[in-house]
Amino acid sequence: MEYRLLGGSGFRVPALTFGTGTFGGTTEFFKAWGSSDVEEATRLVDICLDNGLTMFDSADVYSGGNAEEILGKAIKGKRDRVLISTKGGFRTSPDYNGTGSSRFHLTQSLEASLRRLGTDYIDLYQLHSFDALTPVEEALSTLDTFVKAGKIRYIGCSNFSGWHLMKSLATADRYGWTKYVAHQAYYSLIGRDYEWELMNVGLDQKVGAVVWSPLGWGRLTGRIRRGQPVPDNSRLRSQSVIDAGPPVDNEYVFKVVDALDQVAEETGKTVPQIALNWLLQRPTVSTVIIGARNEQQLLQNLGAVGWNLTKEQVAVLDAASETPKAYPYWHQYGFDRNPWPV
Q1: Which CATH number fits domain 3-333: 3.60.20.10, 3.30.365.10, 2.40.50.140, 3.20.20.100?
Q2: What is the four-CA torsion angle of 189, 193, 194, 200, rounded to 10 degrees?
């Protein structure tokens, strides 16, 4: 397993991280992701560790906290061998203060996560989304307090826009507080919006990308093909944007899958492995979160490391997945003193 620096920090993380959204499945929403119990989760964790994958990502809202609880039991006795990444900020109770990045809610959320995970510190703690009602200063000073108390080692954010991230970094710099070194963001061969602005912020400010949904909500698993119905157990059958992902034109998906098939034939690798490997070669990407409902899926995804696509193969995938840029990015792209990284 390759290890990479997380953003501008000295902290090294594996190129692949295991996502635990498939643990629990105690709500209808998360049941569509997976429903691994403690026994299966423990087996998956052990397979990860045997293959050098030591980082496990969760969130306090996954299955109402049950995913964190199962992860905590699965790593019992192995804490010194694993890195824990989790998130807080989404609604965890119906109370007025049961959501957001306020000092009140983050303190409650962190303490609950530590309790469920059975640990006294978290390696990477991330705000799950930007809270427009809580002052950035309040959120960052709270996280800085957690770091100084030894409850968190590194901090990150998730699903921020470019100006959210830059404002937060500038505020932390102004007051000498701990800065974000990671941004957990959606990025895939059929979702390249990340490249327009967030990638450039990441390059300039040394913020590493922790990529979620790298297979585009299951569209890049090799199961979605032209002329074939969507599988019955696919998340794409959901009416929820969060669960099925943003709408993507079918012909665009098929064009990308055709390119993946071409490269698969050349490399002997699977479609998911190629889609994951493409991400691992992108600027700013520190680690890619993989999910798995069972051992077979996990072992296949682990096969995405230890090799690299050629420049020619990357170019084929780039061309198939390219989409028109929104303004002002298309205008900036034409200015030779403001080059894009990809």
Answers
A1: 3.20.20.100
A2: 120
Q: Could you say which of 3, 62, 186, 194 is catalytic? A: 62
Q: Which amino acid is at 97?
A: N
229-256 pLDDT per residue, tens:
666 655 554 545 556 678 899 999 999 9
pTM: 0.93
Check if 62 is active-site: yes
Contact between 16 and 305 (Cβ < 8 Å): yes
**DSSP strands (E only) in the chain:** 3-5, 12-14, 16-19, 55-57, 83-88, 122-127, 152-158, 182-186, 208-212, 285-290
| CB 321, CB 50: distance < 8 Å | no
**pLDDT digits over 50-92, tens only?**
999 999 999 999 999 999 999 999 999 999 999 999 999 999 9
Q: Which of 290, 284, 320 is nearest to 304 (CA)?
A: 290
